[in-house]
User: Which sequence fits this backbone?
């Protein structure tokens, strides 16, 4: 025991005299952890730093966070993202845009190169200026603030509002919870004392924390519980992992849906007052798109999942707002692509691949072109 104590003292001494800090340095963050680098906002809760630039790589999508996925099946994500003066993913600061696209991480597309983003491709297809106003972890409440604060000042003629089935209703509930839990700013805490600061950077504390982290990873359930097997065009089998269970809408989700419809109604009124048309776009989960093409292992819980009627509810509700409000469900476009062998989602993450971004851009472009050819607002 004495030798162990001496060895530990020798290891800790550099931390004691501030020569070594044993806290882990993780390098560049995962795309999903960019939120730690955001600035607070009283309405939006968070916003990317203006004119910031992040690059890096990480292995494993969000399906690997809570379950075990073989490393060989983890996607290697690389990203190199730049943000404009307002904290949105545009290459240049925009004072005017013909089309604005509002949404969450699907629109921002952190792991997709800028030229392959849905907004970039839509700009090429339309031959117009398209503003990307997507921000990860945003929901309908924040997106309405984005429309008012950043979108409408660009004087667009078309507002494209992307609604993600996977978490946008939950984001409504979470927003209210986070706002109610927020406290007025307090006086800054005094800097930690000598011994507290030493404990933070000590080998003992940080080794223990790393052991806890590894233990939690060891206890994660097998990813096969949320997995399906899809056959690729070359006849090979690919395992896809779904991030969250699919189920019928709960009572709280139905309440959030009602609030979302009211938000869209406000967005329609604001857009129309400025002479802009609103197109509401439903972005489905990977499970909705791929489930019919999958074979599920006996251990997979996905075989018991059910699809909600959210697309039908939204189509009916949005259509009742105004004949000038457009509605587009991306499900058939993404499903057709998957049937042809094009996988629009990452195998271990529920976000679009560059192929998925391209499919969405083409679907929105076709919708806008159809309306333009008919020359009738009723086509919306």
Assistant:
């Amino acid at each position: 025991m004495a030798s162990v104590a001496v060895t530990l003292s020798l290891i800790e001494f550099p931390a004691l005299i501030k020569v070594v800090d044993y806290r882990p340095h993780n390098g560049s963050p995962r795309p999903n952890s960019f939120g730690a680098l955001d600035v607070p906002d009283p309405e939006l809760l968070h916003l990317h730093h203006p004119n910031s630039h992040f690059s890096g790589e990480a292995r494993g999508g969000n399906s690997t966070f809570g379950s075990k996925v073989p490393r060989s099946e983890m996607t290697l994500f690389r990203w190199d993202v730049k943000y404009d003066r307002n904290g949105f993913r545009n290459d240049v600061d925009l004072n005017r845009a013909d089309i604005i696209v509002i949404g969450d991480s699907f629109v921002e597309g952190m792991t997709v190169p800028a030229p392959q983003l849905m907004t970039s491709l839509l700009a090429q297809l339309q031959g117009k200026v398209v503003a990307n106003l997507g921000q990860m972890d945003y929901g309908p409440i924040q997106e309405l603030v984005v429309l008012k604060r950043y979108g409408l000042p660009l004087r667009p003629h078309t507002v494209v509002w992307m609604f993600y089935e996977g978490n946008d209703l939950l984001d409504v509930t979470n927003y209210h919870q986070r706002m109610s839990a927020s406290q007025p700013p307090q006086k800054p805490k005094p800097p930690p004392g000598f011994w507290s600061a030493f404990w933070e950077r000590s080998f003992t504390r940080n080794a223990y924390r790393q052991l806890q982290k590894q233990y939690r990873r060891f206890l994660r359930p097998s990813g096969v519980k949320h997995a399906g097997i899809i056959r690729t065009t070359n006849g090979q089998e690919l395992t896809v992992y779904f991030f969250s269970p699919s189920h019928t809408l709960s009572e709280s989700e139905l309440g959030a849906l009602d609030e979302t419809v009211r938000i869209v109604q406000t967005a329609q009124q604001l857009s129309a007052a400025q002479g802009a048309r609103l197109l509401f776009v439903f972005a489905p989960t990977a499970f909705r798109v791929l489930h019919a093409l999958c074979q599920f292992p006996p251990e997979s819980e996905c075989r018991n999942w059910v699809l909600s009627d959210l697309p039908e509810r939204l189509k009916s509700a949005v259509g009742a707002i105004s004949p000038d409000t457009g509605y587009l469900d991306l499900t058939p476009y993404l499903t057709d692509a998957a049937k042809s062998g094009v996988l629009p989602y990452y195998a271990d993450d529920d976000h679009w691949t560059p192929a998925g971004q391209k499919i969405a851009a083409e679907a929105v472009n076709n919708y806008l072109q159809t309306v333009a050819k008919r020359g009738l607002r009723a086509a919306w």
